[in-house]
C-alpha cells in the first residue's frame, strides 16, 4: 500500500476490529431482503395479471391488502408486506438492528418488518411492564438464558435455510425420486452452511460427512417403515438413533474441533483401549435410554394432539 495512505490500516478500527466475523449474519440478512423482495414483487405481478384477465379496471396491489393481525412465527415469513416497504431505509434498518446484529437469532426481513411496523403490542407502551421485563431479562441472562438463546439461534437459522435453500431446491420430494432429492438438497444445504461458517476444506468435509452419515438413516427408515407396528420396532429405532448420534458427534468434532489427526487419535483411543471401550459401551447405553425417553415424549405429545414434526 502507498505510504501516504498507510494510516488507513494503522488507524482506528472501530470497537469491533474483526467486523468480518459478524458479516456472516449480515450476508444472511442481505439474502433474506432480496429473496423476500423478489417474492413479494412476483406476487404483486401475479395479482395484477389475474385482475386484468378478470376485466377489473384497476388491478389490486399488495399495498391495498389488509395486513392480518397476530400472525404466528410461520405465517410472518410470508406476510403480505406492501412493495413500498421494501425501501433502502428499511433495508439498512434491518441490517443494522442492534439486538440481533452480532449474535442473531436470524430473523427474516418480512418477519422483522411485520413485528416492527404492523404488530406493536400494547405492552410496549406500558412503562411498568417494561421495567419488570427488564429486571426479569437481567435475571435470566445471569442464569440460563444463554441456553435458550443457543436453541433459538439454531432454530431460526434452520428456518432460514429451509425457506431460502432447501424448499426452493425441491425439499424432500416424494416417492423414489424423493430420496435422491433429499440427499442432493441436503448436500447443498450443508455445503452452504460450511462455507457460510468459513471457507475451509475441513468444514466442507464436515458438511459432506453429515450427509454421508444421514444415508443409513434415510435408507433404514424407508426399509423398516413397514414394520412400524411390530413391538421391536421402537427398540430398533433407538439402536439406530445411538449409531446416528455417534456419527454426528464424530462429524462435528472433525469439522469444528479435532480435524484429521485429532479425530483419528480419538477413534483409536475409543476402540483400542479398555477405558475407551468402557466409555463407548456406557455412553451408548445412556444414549439408548435417552432415545427411548425422547420417543416416549413424542408419543405423549401425539396423544395430546401435538405434532411437532421432528
UniProtKB/TrEMBL annotation:
It comes from Metschnikowia pulcherrima. Coiled coil: none annotated. The chain crosses the membrane at residues 91-110, 130-152, 164-197, 203-224, 236-256, 276-295. The keyword Acetylation does not apply. Keywords: Membrane, Transmembrane, Transmembrane helix. One of its GO terms (biological process) is GPI anchor biosynthetic process. Its main location: membrane. InterPro entries: MB_O-acyltransferase, MBOAT_fam. It is found in: Membrane. Belongs to the membrane-bound acyltransferase family. GO terms for cellular component: endoplasmic reticulum; membrane. It is a multi-pass membrane protein. GO terms for molecular function: O-acyltransferase activity. This is Uncharacterized protein.
